Every structure is written in C-alpha cells, then in structure tokens.
Protein: Aspartate--tRNA(Asp/Asn) ligase
Amino acid sequence: MRSHYCGALGTNNIDETVTLCGWVDRRRDHGGVIFLDLRDRDGIVQVVFDPDTEEHFQRADRVRPEYVLKVTGRVRARSEATVNSAMATGEIEVLGKELEILNSAATPPFQLDAHTTVGEDVRLKYRYMDLRRPEMQNRLILRAQITSAIRSFLDGAGFLDIETPILTRATPEGARDYLVPSRTHPGSFFALPQSPQLFKQLLMVSGFDRYYQVAKCFRDEDLRADRQPEFTQIDIETAFLDEDEIMSITERMIRELFQSVLSVELGDFPRMSYAEAMERYGSDKPDLRIPLELVSVDDLMQQVDFKVFRGPADDPDGRVAALKVPGGAKISRKEIDDYTKYVSIYGARGLAWIKVNDLAAGVEGLQSPILKFMPEAVVIEMMTRLQAQDGDIIFFGADKSAVVNESLGALRLKVAESMGLVAEGWAPLWVVDFPMFEDDGSGGWTPLHHPFTAPACSPEELQANPGTALSRAYDMVLNGTELGGGSVRIHQHEMQETVFRILGISDEEAQEKFGFLLDALQYGAPPHGGLAFGLDRLVMLMTGSQSIRDVIAFPKTQSAACVMTDAPGEVSAQQLRELNIRLRQAKQEAAAAAQDE
Amino acid sequence: MRSHYCGALGTNNIDETVTLCGWVDRRRDHGGVIFLDLRDRDGIVQVVFDPDTEEHFQRADRVRPEYVLKVTGRVRARSEATVNSAMATGEIEVLGKELEILNSAATPPFQLDAHTTVGEDVRLKYRYMDLRRPEMQNRLILRAQITSAIRSFLDGAGFLDIETPILTRATPEGARDYLVPSRTHPGSFFALPQSPQLFKQLLMVSGFDRYYQVAKCFRDEDLRADRQPEFTQIDIETAFLDEDEIMSITERMIRELFQSVLSVELGDFPRMSYAEAMERYGSDKPDLRIPLELVSVDDLMQQVDFKVFRGPADDPDGRVAALKVPGGAKISRKEIDDYTKYVSIYGARGLAWIKVNDLAAGVEGLQSPILKFMPEAVVIEMMTRLQAQDGDIIFFGADKSAVVNESLGALRLKVAESMGLVAEGWAPLWVVDFPMFEDDGSGGWTPLHHPFTAPACSPEELQANPGTALSRAYDMVLNGTELGGGSVRIHQHEMQETVFRILGISDEEAQEKFGFLLDALQYGAPPHGGLAFGLDRLVMLMTGSQSIRDVIAFPKTQSAACVMTDAPGEVSAQQLRELNIRLRQAKQEAAAAAQDE
Structure:
C-alpha cells in the first residue's frame, strides 16, 4: 500500500509523490490548513492538507489521534522558519493530495506522549497502545536486530540451531518449576524447562558438536524487578573445545554484536579470578566503570582493641575492609544514616566511617565516631595504605567475609550512582576460577554453579579438598550485570559420581533425577562445555532500559500476571476433570488465604 | 582440538597432517593393522594404525565402537584396490600417528547401523545414540539450515522477530489447551498457546508492521502419526498488505528456501479455488503430483433408476463422482475389498467400480456389479466423458458431497501410491476462495478458519448470505501437505461483531474470550493479515522423512510422553499444595481408570 515509511523521508525525496500508511500522532489546524503528524514504525513525518483538495481536506478534518490513514502527497522542503530540527524528518513535509481513512480510533486510554501520567498497570492493560510509542518500538526493533546478529554470528561459526522440548521434566537448576498436568498420563506432570541444560549436553553426546538455541526458559519464583517468569536465553554448547576456546568464540560474538548494532568497540575482555573480584569489589560481577575498590585492613585491625573490628580481623572467615570514596566528606549525616540502613539489607550490623577533612593535621584532621577506638599509628598507616586525600570518606565493613563483601559491594554501587562516579561507556570482563562448592551452612557442600560443572582437578584431588577446588566455570560480566555464564561440563562418569558424592546426592537420587544423563555419559560423551546468555538483560543493557518489562513485548507483572489478557484465568470443571486434578481450595478462598499469609 | 571435520577430508588434503575428533564408527583388524572408521557430524573417514606407532597402536587396539578419540595423522591416497566409492572420503585415509582416548563407551544399546533391528521405543529411550546416526544428523542439520534460511529471508524483508508469551490464556483455535496452574493466583491457570494468533494481531495494532517468529505451539490432542504435542510454527503477520502481496512474499520465501537448501526451482505457484480443489481432487490440499481426478457424473446419474446413485445425484447436497485409474483393471478383487474398507473410514457406505477391459466391445467389454442397474447409453456417455481406455478401472462415490470428496480424495492418494502413480518432484499451489463458514450440522455456522478471518464482502452481504460468502484466506499446499495457511484478518470492529453474531457468539462470550482484541480493534487497527507455516512438516517434506519424530531432536511418543527423560513424571505433595491443586485420583487408580475406558 505504501511507497515509503514515514521516517525514511528526507530532502532527497523532495518533489517525489509518496504514499504513506500510518497512525495520526498529532493533528493541528493553523491558518485554515490541517497539519497531521503521521507515524509508523520508522518514524514521524508532517503531512499538510490545505483546502484546495476539498474532499480530502474534509476527511483530514475528521481525523483524530490514532486514526489509521493512507496518504498520498508530494514531498516538499519546509521553509527555513518551519524547519523542525528536533524531528528526523523535520526539513521536509508532505503536501497531501489524497487521504483514505483505513480505520478510525476511539479516544485512546492515554496519550502516547503523556504515558508517564498513567500508571504502569494502565500501560500494561493497553500494551498494544503503549507499544506504539517510538521508544518502545525502537527497543523491540533493536531486540530483533540483536537476536538476528547473534544468530548470524553463530550460524556462520558452524553452530546448529536445535530446538529442545518445552514440555519436559524437572531440570537441575533448583528453582521452582512451572508444572503442566498430563491428560494422557493422569497424575503425572511435565515441567517447563528452567534451561535446556541437560538436553544441550545430550546433543553433544549425540555428536552435534556446536549447538545454539534462543531458548525460552521458565522459573516460578517470586519476581524481582529484573525477573520474569519466562525469559529468553542464548544457549550455547560445544564439544571438543576447552574453556579458552569457548570464551574466545563467545567474546567475539558479543564484540561483533556491539560493533554491528551499536557501533561500539568493546576491545579485549580482561579476565579476573573470582577471588580477586570478591577481594576488590565484593562481587562476582563487578562494575568496572566505578573507580572505587574495597581494601582489606584485617592486618591493621588485628592491632586494635575495638571489638567490632578486632573480632572479624582475627576470624579466618571474617574480613575488615575499607571503601574509600573521593569527595565523600561532603556526604551528610542523614545520607550516612540512609547508607547504614541500606547495608543492613545485606546483613551488615552497622556502617563505620571516617571523613578526611585535613590530612595534614593528622588524626586531628579526621572526623569519625570510631577514631577514639584506634591507636593513632594504625589510623595513619591506614590512611597511607588507602592513599586517602582531603575530602574523602572511608566506609568500613567488619563481619563474616560474605557479609562484608555483599554489603560493601552493594554500597560501592549505591554511592557511586548517587555521587555520579559511574563512568560512561562499557566495561566487560570475564570472571573465572570460581570455587566448585560453597559451604551449605550445615557442614555440607552445594555447587556454586550446577552439579555438571567440571572441576579444574582430578576426582581424587576434588574428593580430598572440595572446599578449595576450583571449577572450569566462567561468567561474562558487563557493567556490573552478569550477561552470561557457563562452564566446561563433566564428561566422565567417574568424575560425575565424585561430584554427586561430595554433594551428598545418593546414587538413587542421581539416577532418579538425571539418570538419562548419567547413562549418556557412559556411551561415549565427548569433552564439552558451553554458556548461556540472558537475552533480556543483554537487550536491557544495549537499549539502556531500566525495566525488563521494557524489552519484552508482552511481559508479566510482578505477581506473574498479564493484565492485558487477564492471564492466568479460570478454567472449567471439565478441563480439570480431564487432567485428573481438582482445586484444593476454591479460587476466592485460596486468594483470601494467600493474602492472609 | 581438531584441525578438520572427518567428512571434510579429500584428495586435496593428501600429505597434510590433520587432527580429528570423533567417535569410532567401526573397527577392524586386518593383516596386523587396525582400521578405525572415525565419525563426526560431517562424515566418516578411515584411520589406519600400524604397529610402527607402538604406544598409539596399543591404544588403538583397545578402542571399541563409540569410543571418543582424538587422532593426529597424515592424509594419504588409498591404493586403487582399496578405494571405497560408497564413502564420501573413500579415496583417502589417515595414517594415524597419535591417538588419545577422550572417553570410553559401554557397549551401545543398539548398533547404529542396525537401528532397524530394535523398536522405536529403544531408539527413543537412547535418543542421544539414535541421533548419532548420519541420517538423523543430516535431518537436524538440514532443519537448522531451513530455519536459518527462512530467518535470513524475513530479516532481509524487514520483518521483526518478536517473541510472544508461552504462559498465556486460552487461544481461539479450539483444540484442547495445555494448562499451567498459577501459584501466585491460586485457582487460576495459564494456557500454553496453540498459536500466537492474537498476539500477532496485537503487534500489528501496535504498528510493528511486519512480524515473524519461529514459535512453539501446543495442543493437547490425541496424537496422530504426524502430530506432536508441541510443534513449531513459522508465524508471519503484516499490516498494510493485501492477500496478493502476502502470498507473493511468502511464496518467494519458500521458493528461495528450496533454491538455497535443496537447489530446487519450484517456479510460480498456481492458484486454485477451494471449490475447484474439492471438485477435482476431493481435497483442499490436493497432491498435484498425482494425475488422477474426480469427475462429477451427477447429471448422468439423474437418468438412472439405481437408487444408490440416483439419490445423491438428485440431492443438492449430494454428489456422484468417478475416479478413473489408468491401468487399474488389473487390481484384484481382494484389493478392491481393501479399498472399500479404506473408504469406509471416511464414511463411504460402499465402493462401486467398473473395469474397462475392451472398450471396442461396448458395455460387453466392461466388468462391474453395477452395470446391470444402468442404461447402456448412460454408461457409454460416461466412458466418453471420462475418456476411458482399455485397462482402466473407474471407482465411484455417491453420497453427501462431503463424504464423496473425503472418501474419493483419500482413495485417490491411496491408489496412486500403491500403483506408483505419484510423480517425482514438487507440486506447490495456493488454495484460495475458501468459504467463510461451514454448516455446523445443527443449523448454525462454524468458521472454516478462525473467527478473525476477513470475508471478501461487506458486513451486510455477509449477514445476508453466510453460507456462500468467501473469505480472504489462503493455504499453501505442497505435494498434498498443507505447508501453511493464513488470511487477511478483520480489522474493523463492526465486521468482527457481524462474524461473532453469525457464529452465535454472544457479546459477553466474545468479550470474555477475546475482549482485549476487540478493544484493540477500536483504537486504530490497521488492515493486516498473515500466515503460519508448520516447520516440522516443511522439514519432513524437505528431508523426505516419513515421521515427524525424525525431524525433532527430542520428540514425544504417541501417548505424549518422553521415554528418555521419563516425562511426564511424579511431583511432590508439596509442589501440588503450592499450586493449590490435588489429584482427583491417585496416579495408579487414574491410570487404571484410563485404561478401562
């Protein structure tokens, strides 16, 4: 129907007759002339109808916002006075000759350019309207470009796009599964996959060598701001490649993606061990755009009597760390109180601080409630170690290492953001050398990744030192977000059994849960490994979106509902009967009970 | 780890030192030398170890089928006597220098080259082994190529890949939904989508203009041989294009797909009306490779007294049709009985036939139990109309038109196949001009497609003549298989209401089921339409596979189970409690009850 997209018109089209299709974004009358801003997915252009074209002018006079039009007219330059430099097509306009109203529109539930005046619930209910906003169009267009660029790269690198089942059985990620009652096997249930992990490993056992999939995954968890019950994963697995090769290919993929879609050069990604990331940033996904670091001062604090510091400093599982914030001396008492509350979310029982007002004056030039507990020499040595300068504030964490890392790591981000210390640009890195296991708090071990992750040592060494063994896992981190993670997998049966033994998973349990994978490892499994990227998060980063809901066409709310389609909904007694299930409590009772909890 | 894929080696690699990784396909000892056939996804190559390389020879001596090896060696030409022309790499072999056993393998549950000796259940249980077979590898590799080629085409044509939800609400296709109990909304259920139909229409209302998705769809139906509970659809929707433009783009897509993947030229697709397809082939998806046609003889049969023919000939809803099969006079009585049984599946109460033995002898030269019921002149005129020749058999159907079309349409395929009358090659076509509605058998109307299909007339005309109104739907048919179907959709509220009224769907029911779509049509819906291709069937056709299970990596059985992972499986009482459901009958009871039915 159309000859051009609205947004594609420019001065090189002047004097051409064009046909456009789109929506009325705005309509104005001015000096007996009607101005229509016509919008399509490519952009907006101004169309002018003057009374000469009587029939069409009259029609133009009837149109209202969001009417769907087909317009034919001639492109002409705007006069210098009317050029609109804020508009991509602002140097031209279309002098309308013919106008066909393809569809009318009721008054929209909200004005697109005033979407912030209504709540997100209204925008989600009328999602098809909200998606008309150019920002939303651009986000989903960029998402399609990103997916396409990734696919091209992987297709070109010999990866095969292979689909794995959605109706499957519980996978080992450990989050809560969505379940689907089976009609043909009454009393049994499918689970929706939390990831294609087991299937992709089986594909390697099958010899497909290089696999990828843009895979839907599902987790029935209580949702945080950046989570959705269904999310999309760029899922990759390879055989006969080691971790360096896998990291090299996928790093190249992300680098070329940023080049082609954003024209951004990411350069080579540095690698950092998990231990170093925790030590310096209190996080296994450090945001390297922030020039703040945690510095350990345990050795100094072993010299003080102050119990709050001395205890953790002497504790092998404890840590005392300092976070120096340049220019932070101006932070108010009120703000410090807020930060103290903030770190308490992460288990910190307080937030000690020292303001550096005048270093030349020695301890006299410092300001802090804790100075009185520390010998002057220790304080001075600490200032030297931290390379403190006038105007700094130094925060302290002293507790179990995990608490210190988590709370100071979070504080680092928070302070950097509110003080504008986050540099522009992109800071990617690999985090490597993760521990295989972590203490489960009751004398046992849980896997830091999943139980199929290969260790960087022999079964015997692993059995001997599970607490210090490192895995062959790797995470790709960008601007403080984990873009993707993966590992070389265990491909030998003996090693898999060792890991299960350390995790306290009995042979029966292992066989019951992953029997088919264990079987497969016996029939000639190749060395293999892979990685999965969270597509939604990648698109969020690349589009600068604050909410995951902004990069998904039809997202769920935080209570895992779709307010547009009213899903989930009621089903008939007949449907439940066919599935051999009944409700435990009627819907309203159950809802009331859930609210009471 | 490798320098080459096994199957990529040829005479141009002679004297190169290569490193290969793969599986031992076969192992032979001959004259003190060990021959290993090494297999990867690209093919198979012969590797020779002689006793010179002692350590590696000893290792080679230990390997068994399906061991995983890394081999380094020199490519050399085979002697003329040992060239194996049945093997793609049969002109060369690799003289092994080094061998590393990457993994051992237990004795496989079945030998790959003897997979037909075990049942499909065994192959499905050890799917990861069955997928190692070169035929299976090639099918899934071709599937990936097909998907990739389609995506490239659509990306290049400005289509945006947009994901729609899997956790959603019941869609209007009318098959049984898979349900997912909601934990956060106890008593409510998500449905898995039978197609993204409503979402893709909403994306058009949102202005995305051209959308596609390789979409997982779900139907909880009792499975036929070519169905799976989850299947994949190439889902396409466009705005501002009419049916000719949509058909033209998608036809080009399929044509380019066949060119690029199979090097096949399909040419321009003919178009045929639904009425003509039913008249000539008794099917809305005629296989044009078969040179047999149905010919109506109602007018002739109105001249006979034979009730079986005369009744349907006089009935406006009836039909008497003939199917002439050249060379069919040699079909035995036993075979005719089998065909009679076959057409009874489709409701035919018998299968009349005439064998043409000697046309020159007039009626005397014909052989049939029904000749005695028909005047000679009618028989002769019929022979002329059918252009009968000696050696033909003519089958007859006489009943309601629907029964005649279905039974003779099916017989046409059956006879053609068993007599080898199906031509080689590809016969695509479009079927168009479908009726909007069909009689629901109780005085009402049901949609031939879905209730969002636009009619080719005004709301007033549609209301006046629902039985004869045509729709703007179109199906793409290839070799008797419906590859895809679609339509221009209703984009105006008034038309949608008219259709619902004719279908007897009340305003409340419409609002309850599709309220969000009806709302959307009021806020400026553009003219739009689309089409969906069944990817699994397309891949079946393009790979020449007989079973849909051969083109899906991890398919379900006919009872909708996965024998490899044992899905569906049992879940815990705790999980059910969280979802506010309980089993109606315990699993074993329910299974017993289901078996009794």
The two ends of chain B are 57 Å apart (CA to CA).
